[in-house]
Specification:
This protein has 455 residues and is an alpha/beta fold. It has helices at residues 3-8, 13-25, 28-34, 45-59, 66-75, 79-82, 84-93, 101-128, 135-153, 161-178, 189-195, 214-228, 242-254, 258-263, 270-285, 298-312, 338-356, 369-373, 393-397, 407-410, 449-454, and strands spanning 203-208, 233-237, 288-291, 316-320, 360-365, 400-405, 419-427, 433-440, 445-447. Helix 17 (338-356) links the parallel strand 4 and strand 5 (360-365). The longest helix has 28 residues, at 101-128.
């Protein structure tokens, strides 16, 4: 980087020196300073080295003053680089009479943020000028960089219980008055009872072997939330086209055979046409958004979700399915395995849920272990969290893991035809357990058991 650019970058030498001098005079300022900024927020290399030395000495229960700092830097062969003992002494000599530590911290932090913005922009401009520059990749990189800068600026530290109690009591009061939790309702009473609804900031994983109904369950819940709960719902479909997704949603909501819709064998009856048109009308009014990009990267997914949150006040995200998401090359090392890739994906989905403060629901494949572990004699497969395909990070990052099991898929003579077990195998803030739903195969529709009994 050109020396002229470095010198021109925003900084305030007086504020930086005042902070360093204040910490050398009174080590009690050290925690206050480093709770808000890091040593890298200082501009001059000499200031960075001195700040690092102060922090290291204080963390090792040693005093940090002009003598100990000079000695520390001399042992590291850095004393002459920073300007010698005379420069360290000048930090204390030049300190203002009326110290305003909070203001100095704000100034240093602001200048550091401006430098990061300038350098990030310069990097994007440089990459944008290259012949092989990819517009989408650059846009995603720029958005990620700016969000990282914003997050770095707002350091969330400890919050006292005195500040949090009013908010907690208000939440409890609303729950008690409403008689129910504040989570998003799925439309399945037993599932909502055990989970208290899908909570903001949670990563929820539905996992199953193929043909168990992962996508069907996701579509059912998405439709319930969009129409009955009037929530803004995003559905990422990496495997199916958006028209296929919509047609399945229409079949589910109208309770019309998906086979009839797709093949006209048999043709739809007048009643089915009427029900389908009614379902189409309700889905048209719903705040339901489908993205069917086939090669969707986690960076692109996060960028689009942020945009939808800003424009439509997004309430929940569905991802079908987790192991199909791509990871960009810059987020991986050459030696990384697919398990490492999945670890990056699950961590990013959890970060997205926390950042947007909405639930993120991801579908995931299971490996074959459950099929070898169970059978008719054991009343079906036995599921374990370690069955999650390709990575242990899924069970680690997920707040809720729910296995889907339909006995009639393993045993054609099963007495439980048309039933589906949802096994809550992990719930970070609630109980585990099993619930039973009806599965109407003709419509690929999950329903509460009482509905199934009425049918």
């Amino acid at each position: 980087m050109a020396l002229e650019l470095i010198q021109a970058l925003p900084h305030d030498e007086i504020a930086e020196k005042a902070l360093l001098g204040a910490m050398l005079i009174d080590n009690r300022y050290v925690n206050q300073v480093f709770a808000e900024i890091s040593s890298e927020d200082f501009f001059r290399d000499a200031h960075i080295l001195i700040a690092q030395a102060v922090l290291q000495l204080v963390n090792s229960d040693s005093a940090a003053d002009i003598i100990t700092i000079s000695s520390f830097l001399e042992k590291k062969k850095k004393l002459q680089f920073v300007g010698g003992h005379a420069f360290v002494t000048s930090l204390v000599d030049d300190i203002p009479e009326n110290l305003d530590i909070k203001e100095y911290i704000k100034i240093v932090k602001d200048r550091s943020t401006l430098r990061k913005i300038i350098l990030t922009s310069r990097n994007i401009i440089q990459k944008g000028g290259e012949p092989a520059a990819d517009t989408i990749s650059l846009l995603n990189e720029m958005q990620e960089d700016i969000i990282t800068i914003s997050e770095d600026r707002i350091k969330k530290g400890f919050v006292s219980t005195a500040e949090m109690i009013p908010e907690a009591m208000d939440l409890i009061e609303r729950i008690q008055k409403g008689g129910e939790s504040q989570g998003l309702k799925t439309g399945y009473y037993d599932l909502d009872d055990i989970t208290s609804g899908f909570q903001n900031g949670d990563l929820i994983v539905f996992a199953a072997r193929p043909s168990m109904g992962k996508t069907a369950l996701a579509l059912n819940i998405a439709v319930n939330m969009a129409i009955k709960e009037e929530k803004a719902v995003a559905f990422y479909s990496i495997e199916m086209s958006k028209i296929q997704v919509l047609m399945r949603m229409m079949a589910i909501h109208a309770k019309v055979s998906m086979s009839s819709i797709r093949t006209a064998k048999p043709h739809l009856t007048n009643k089915e046409w009427h029900d389908l048109e009614l379902a189409a009308s309700e889905l048209q009014k719903a705040k339901l958004y489908i993205d069917d990009s086939a090669s969707l990267s986690i960076v692109e997914m996060k960028a689009r979700a942020r945009k939808l949150k800003a424009e439509k006040n997004l309430d929940i995200i569905f991802v079908d399915y987790l192991q199909l998401i791509k990871v960009s090359a810059e987020n991986l090392r050459r030696s990384d395995t697919r398990a490492n890739e999945v670890a990056v994906i699950t961590a990013a989905l959890k970060e997205l849920a926390k950042e947007l403060q909405i639930p993120v629901v991801a579908m995931a494949q299971l490996n074959r272990s459950p099929e070898t572990r169970g059978g008719k004699r054991e009343k079906g497969p036995k599921y374990q969290l370690s069955d999650l395909k390709e990575s242990g990070s899924i069970e680690q990052d997920a707040d809720v893991v729910i296995f889907i099991h339909r006995d009639d898929q393993f045993d054609k003579d099963s007495e439980r035809k048309g039933e589906a077990d949802l096994i809550v195998a992990k719930q970070r803030n609630g109980p585990t357990g099993k619930i039973v739903l009806a599965f109407l195969d003709k419509f690929t529709k999950f329903a509460n058991m009482e509905f199934h009994e009425r049918e």
